[in-house]
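Follow-up to my post from last week.
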Amino acid sequence: MLHAGGVRTTMATILKADNLEKVYRVGKVDVPALRGVSLAVQEGEIIAIMGPSGCGKSTMLHLLGGLLTPTKGRIVIGGEDLTAASDSKRTDIRRRKIGFVFQRFNLFPTLTAEGNLRLAERIHGNGADDPGRRREILGMLRLEDKMHHKPLELSGGEQQRVALARAVVNRPAIVLADEPTGNLDSENSEIVLNMFRELNDRFNQTIVMITHNPEAAAACQRIIQMRDGHIV
Amino acid sequence: MRSAISVLGVALGVALVMLFTGLAHGMSDDLQKRSSNVSAEIIFTRPGSLSLMAASVNLSTKYVPLLQQLDGVESATPVIRHFYAAGAFGVDQVEGVEWDGFSKMNNLRIVQGRAPASPDEILIDETKAARNHPVGSTLKVFGEKLYRVAGIYAPESGARVKMPLRTLQDELEAPDKCTFIYVKVKNPADQVAVAKRIDETFPGNKIQLTRDVFVTIENSIPGLTVFLRVLVVLAAIVSALVIMLAMHTTITERTREIGILKAMGASRTYIIGEIEREALLISLLGMLVGFALAGIGGFGIHKMTGLIFEFSPKWALTAAAIGLLGGALGALYPAARAANLDPVNALAYE
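User reply:
Got it. Predicted complex:
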């Protein structure tokens, strides 16, 4: 794997999921979404998770990000057991180690591009307010001239790049992306995928993305196929 | 828009507290000020014929010369106090007096114009005159009959409008009657002894010392203080409910944004803090708008009705506390609810 500056590094396991099961209760019926999924993600990897709708991809991503708790199984991220953690501890781990990118961008419409990044820094805490870092990230994502624009003044591709910048501004251990090109045309999809690759190249950023897009999957180092709650 | 409505809701609560308490204090102080210019030490009247908002004309003026003959009495002057409906909202009062004796006893003087010379002339005080009633203008004192302002007197004392006693007796068809008689004693230190002497000489009447009669409105009306406190509590509840409703709507509208915040790792404390900060900002703006509304409202009502408002720092602080605390507490439940939202459901919220 290439680190910033092109130096190869030894890969370590950044995320490990063991025998994950998730059962939703719908009325009086138990609906299994994951049926014993195990996964290990190495530091600096880009992984695509593919599969038909309803196969458990989003549930998997939400479990890995600590937004849901598994019915059974264990998730360890950066040495911290997510499944054994309390709700507030899980929030803390998410704040420190995980960055999310969503299909619908999910930017705050009243904040500028830079404001959205500053919000992420504020939530991250530790008095983080690093204009240099914000400029670096926005610059790398070709958004220097859009820093003071609000989301509605940006194209879909630009909004998704801002969302990506927001996800990585606090240097998370892993970025979890839920169909990041799902709302973009092919040209903007290509731009956003290039940004993912560049982040990976320059900062050794670990990325796990759900996608239906074969071109996006092709840009990843590893593709995980899911079906009926299993990795196949 | 939603925030503006919330600000107005808080402003309403603050303005209500300010206006109600301001009105009570203003009217009380005005009454006290006018009462303090009465020099007579004793009021001689019939039992039950004089109260804060009503008066009877059932005391014979034959007592006036009899009182003047009593030992220790310097002078006595009869007064009719009459209440009448004024304008669309309120009640006003007029006093019928024998101007020479009344003004001499209470050290009143005519600052403009002259004393009434005919039955259709009246005197008014400077506050009444300032409300567009110059000398020579006419006033409807009761009914539709017009009275001409013959002069303006000072300082203000009792009812703002004075007319000749005889005129008021004729209007009320109460010849040789009055509501009460002011008695001035030769030595104020003897007022209690003189009052006792009057009581012994003319039993069955009511003798009051003016110093005991002219207490504040708050003390005159039973339960007014409690009423004001209840009003303040209601205003606080209204403010808190408005904020709570506004914040509840805010959170429903921003469910998705709260989901994003949670996905970004925002803690419960952070989310509650953000919502509380917004609520406090709304409350602060509402408080300022409320003070402005109270000022404008008080001025407008005074101009329209003559009611006097006196805003006290103590009640301003109370109103500010109600606005801010009402907002902070009102937002607490919606904030806690937002902090406990399930992030996945919140993110899926449309």
